[in-house]
Amino acid sequence: MEDQATQTPVETGKEPQAFSMEQALQDAEARLEKTVQRGQIVTGTVVFVTNDGVMVDIGARTEAVIPFNQLTEENLSEEELKNLLKPGDTVTAYVVRADLENGQVVLSKKRAEADQSWVKIQALYEQGEPVMVQVKEKVKGGLVATIEGLRAFLPASQVDLKRTPELDEYVGQSFLVKIIELNRKKGRIILSRRTVLEAEQKAARSRILASLKEGDIVEGQVVEVTDFGVFVALGGVDGLVHRSEITWGRFNHPKDVVQKGQTVKAKVLSVDTERERVNLSMKALSQDPWLTVSEKYPVGSRLIGKVVGLTQFGAFVEVEPGLEGLIHISELSWTKRPKHPGEILKEGQEVEAQVLRIDPEERRLSLGLKQTQPDPWKSLPDRYPPGTPVKGKVTGLTDFGVFVEIEPGIEGLIHVSELAYERVEKPSEIFKKGDEVEAAILQIDPVEQRISLSRKRLLPPPAHAVSIPGGEEGEGRKNRREGKEGERPKRSKSKGGAREGRSRDHDYEYGMGGGAASYTNYDPSVVATSNTNVKLGDVFGDLLSQLALEEDKDKEKA
Question: How far apart are CA 107 and CA 93, in angstroms?
């Protein structure tokens, strides 16, 4: 025994410990004098573990106990709690109860850790720095996460940039959050992941806006399609492609051209860093078709297009995306006179047209549909020479004449002076629409698309028009012989005779818009002249009149 008590430090392998009665007394006095109060944070050494808790030497006259339920916030089993601390471990705890006289000191390890966590959390909250947390569970209205060992609440509205109804997928995840509300008295800690994401997004937008410049070609995904344009994601910032910059072609809604989720390329038109706006153009990546329209579609050439619009004055035809031409209503048909282009064309119909006029500066292209068909007016003079009798139905009645359709869509005008030998005041009293009328061709103007007809040239002349002796002719000669002061009396003309009809000016005008006559353009004071005699009676009437004049001259000489 003596040998064992006198072992040297070298033999035991331990450092020599200076221990004296004086030191022991000082230590005992210090323990007696040390006071412990509720709310203190003390540090001690684990002595042993019992079935009720962990005994800790805190340097007081009595040892303190940490109950198992005050060890940690984690939900551990009794066996795990017993193995959480071992004799000799240093532990920091919060004094829950201090009764040294009765030898009762109760500590709380988790309360001390919470105090330290609150100090750290307070510092994070004041600094505004993000902190990493792990989501523990889903609760009503949001998620629960731990931060420095304390429970904190993450509302559903603060989980992401957009409210997410399903939160189960976030359980177990770790991500950065920001403390937006802190109340230690109520033990309330409110977190926000959305604030962190917004800050990251803003930083990304700033970087992108700083890197973009006018004229850059960018690529992005369509995130939204609206009536006024398309939004394209450019990695943190959305650029707008206005509907006028989507394509050169015509469309009703932007969704007819692009769809959400589609990847597109565009050209940067402008960048507003202050308002964080980027204007893009998709059509700028393709050439303006009006720049080459004169070379690709010269005047006189024919092209194929699609009818994309019908208006009161004509039809719009899309030749290629961004290039449209107009077929005026007057250029639809040689013979028809439509009130609306829809009578001839339908929207969506593919048609062949001829280029009539091009104005690239005004972006106008005039097309003709009837020019792709033979012009029936060119062959009319050959098929209907002057004097040719024709038959047709009355299509229109005016005060100055009657319009007659001699071929489908082709009309001619019988002037009132050519309706009959007698004077006709109102053609509507004699004819009505749909009546069949026979007439003779007087003149055809294929350029102006006008046809002059005569009905009276196919009628027999009145009987008195060829009578020479007696009557008005005899009286006329007598009056001339008995004229005062040698004045030769005027010769009386046969009323309604062929000569009277030829002496009038027949140079009237009437429009034939779209291959048919236009009644409103007619001037009734002017009548067209005809140099053709189509009735044998007219020839005899002229000869007899000339003979009568020669006879009068011979008698005067005698």
Answer: 6
- Gyration radius from the chain CA atoms: 57
Distances in Å between the alpha carbon of 229 and those of 212, 232, 243, 277, 288? 20, 10, 4, 14, 20
The overall longest dimension of the chain from CA atoms, in Å, is: 203
Question: What residue has token string 């966590």?
Answer: 117
CATH architecture of 44-111: Beta Barrel (2.40)
d(CA 98, CA 106): 7
- Between CA 335 and CA 377 the distance in angstroms is 9
CA dist 183 → 117, 192, 302 (Å): 13, 15, 81
In angstroms, how far is CA 135 from the centroid of its own chain? 45
Cβ proximity of 517 and 510 under 8 Å: yes
How much of the chain is in helix, strand and coil states, percent to nearest 5?
30, 35, 35
Cα 423 from Cα 456, distance rounded (Å): 11
d(CA 244, CA 269) in angstroms, rounded, equals 13
Q: Quick one: 369 exposed, middle or buried, by C-beta within 10 A (0-12, 13-18, 19+)?
A: buried
In DSSP terms, 2 is beta-bridged to none
Distance CA 453, CA 442 (A): 5
Give the pair of three-digit tokens for residue 9: 């430090």
Mean pLDDT by 10 residues, the chain (558 residues): 37 47 55 67 86 83 82 79 83 81 80 82 87 90 86 91 85 91 88 91 85 89 91 87 87 88 91 88 87 90 92 92 90 87 92 93 91 86 90 91 89 92 89 92 89 91 58 41 42 37 36 36 38 40 47 50
CATH of segment(s) 216-285: 2.40.50.140
Nearest to 191 by CA among 199, 176, 205, 180: 180
Q: Which of 467, 459, 431 is nearest to 540 (CA)?
A: 467
CA dist 456 and 504 (Å) reads 14
Name the pTM for this structure.
0.45
Q: Judge whether 415 and 528 are in contact, CB under 8 Å.
A: yes
For residue 26, the 8-state DSSP code is: H
Which helix (H) or strand (E) segment is 220 a member of?
strand 217-225
Q: How far is C-alpha 299 from the geometric centre of its chain's CA atoms? A: 32
Question: What are the distances in angstroms from CA 427 to CA 326, 396, 401?
Answer: 40, 10, 7
Picking from 431, 475, 437, 430, the residue whose alpha carbon sits closest to that of residue 454 is: 437
Tokens of 166: 């399903």
Q: Within 13 Å, how many C-alpha atoms sit on residue 317's CB side?
A: 28
Instruction: Tell me the one-letter amino acid at 407.
Output: E
Task: Give CATH for domain 289-372.
Answer: 2.40.50.140
Cα dist from 433 to 228, 233, 394, 510, whole Å: 54, 68, 5, 19
CATH fold for domain 128-198? OB fold (Dihydrolipoamide Acetyltransferase, E2P) (2.40.50)
Let me know: does 415 contact 404? Beta carbons within 8 Å: no
Q: Which residue has the tokens 């038959």?
A: 391
Between CA 75 and CA 69 the distance in angstroms is 9
Q: Which CATH class is domain 380-454?
A: mainly beta
Which of 53, 44, 50 is CA-nearest to residue 88? Answer: 44
